[in-house]
Amino acid sequence: MRRPQQSAARTAVRQPHEYREPKPHAGGAQPPGFPRDLVPRHVALVMDGNGRWAKERGLARTDGHTAGEASLFDVVEGAAQIGVEYVSAYAFSTENWKRSPEEVRFLMGFNIETIHRRIDEMDELGVRIRWCGRRPRLWQSVIRELEIAEERTKHNTRLTLAMCINYGGRAEIVDAAAALARDVREGKVDPKKIDEELFASYLDEPDMPDVDLFIRSSGEQRTSNFLLWQSAYAEMVFDDVLWPDFDRTHLWKAVESYVSRDRRYGGALPNIVTADPAPAADPNTR
Fold first, then answer.
1. Nearest-CA neighbor of 26 among 256, 248, 215?
2. What is the dihedral of CA 182, 183, 189, 193, to 10 degrees?
3. pLDDT in the model for residue 272
């Protein structure tokens, strides 16, 4: 993506020792004591259930989206507490254009307002904002706000928050394949040297690691076209809680489940086979 030039004041580098501490949980909850080296580096979030949450309360679907904003940023605070390095949030998919024009307009404006409203506190926390998604159809005002946030926070190192807006896993793979094909046609890439590592370098954010933990709220058990390539070996956690009721304690519970799992990436250790015990002596031969 082409980033706009920002003034020096907007891009002043904040040193790690200057980052603020994560805000405490509203209820005083503390993270479990799992070892930092077992915490997932990259957590993907499918923030599902806003509409159902609003319907249960006799509210408009848009009220559910508004309520879900606080959940996302509480999870980011909780992720920073335990040492998660990357959080990818599914904010608007390539399929969400099928929703009513009124809801789409709301979501476009809401994304602009959310990024603008939260940029100061995320910058202070040491969060780097990234954008994953397609430019076509996405409002220029959304792109502009995302690019400003990317530029302002590009030196932050505590945690990266990828806002996936107008994003689809299949679309990302198709776009990567098209870009790779162009480079092959232009002689920049030898097709005999194409492998998974090279292909991955054409994805939206090739420097981000693969997803370790994939979380979906609301009880639905599907990936819905989110980070398909990056989640090939992700551990899945499906939580029944609707997204506006989700907070960092649910993240921590999912991480506890992740820590307890055996990740083999297709490999396996051989079974330990014990020798057959010696047969008992026949008493008739004594």
1. 248
2. -50
3. 77
The pTM of this model reads 0.88
Place of tokens 């015990």: 277
Q: Please list the residues that pair with 46 across neighbouring strands.
A: 216
What does the DSSP 8-state code read for residue 25?
P
Give φ, ψ of 21 to 5 degrees.
-75, 150
Q: Please tell me which residue in 37, 50, 63, 96 is annotated as part of the active site.
A: 96
CA distance 27 to 111: 27
**Confidence category of residue 268, pLDDT binned at 50, 70, 90:** low
Residue that has been written with the tokens 């100061």 in this structure: 120
* Tokens at 36, concatenated: 């930092």
d(CA 191, CA 204): 21
Q: In angstroms, rounded to a whole number, what is the distance separating the alpha carbons of residues 241 and 215? A: 11
SS3 content of the chain, % helix, strand, coil (to 5): 40, 15, 45
Structure tokens at 65: 């989206």
Number of CB atoms found within 10 A of residue 280's CB: 6
Quick: pLDDT tens for 213-254: 999 999 999 999 999 999 999 999 999 999 999 999 999 999
Query: What residues pair up with 86 in beta bridges, in sequence order?
Result: 42, 160
- Which of 48, 212, 239, 247 is the catalytic position? 48
* DSSP symbols for 189-225: S-GGG--HHHHHTTSSSTTSPPPSEEEE-TT----TT
Tell me how crowded residue 35 is: count the other CB atoms within 10 A of its CB: 8
- Identify whether 96 is a catalytic site residue: yes
**Beta pairing class for 213-216 and 42-46:** parallel
**Annotated catalytic, 111?**
no
Locate tokens 């599914």: which residue? 90
